[in-house]
Amino acid sequence: MPRADPAGDIGDEEFRALLTRPGLRIERIVSHGHVSADWYDQDRDEWVLLVEGGARLSLEGEGEIVLGPGDHLLIPAHVRHRVTWTDPARRTIWLAIHFD
């Protein structure tokens, strides 16, 4: 199976499900200067790994967290959070695992 590799000017932020099972979803997110319009409040825990690029996340009650390649974070269910910055000069690639 060929490997999908986002490249160049991507315009919209890309969300691609890599694996979905009951109680589990693994997705790749490609951002390029994108930020969250609203706060997320999710029913599941989310573990994120920043694969490439740079980002900042704000977690309600905890402030802003700076992420670089290789950094990861567990966001417990119902902890409100939002992406406040992704690198506008290069793509930012995330691996996100949502689980019960």
Automatic annotation (TrEMBL):
InterPro entries, per the entry: Cupin_2, RmlC-like_jellyroll, RmlC_Cupin_sf
One family name in Pfam for this protein: Cupin_2
Alphabetized Gene3D superfamilies for the sequence: Jelly Rolls (2.60.120.10)
Top-level lineage group: Bacteria
Residue ranges constituting the Cupin type-2 domain according to the UniProt record: 33-97
Protein name as annotated: Cupin domain-containing protein
Lineage start: Bacteria, Pseudomonadati, Pseudomonadota, Alphaproteobacteria, Sphingomonadales
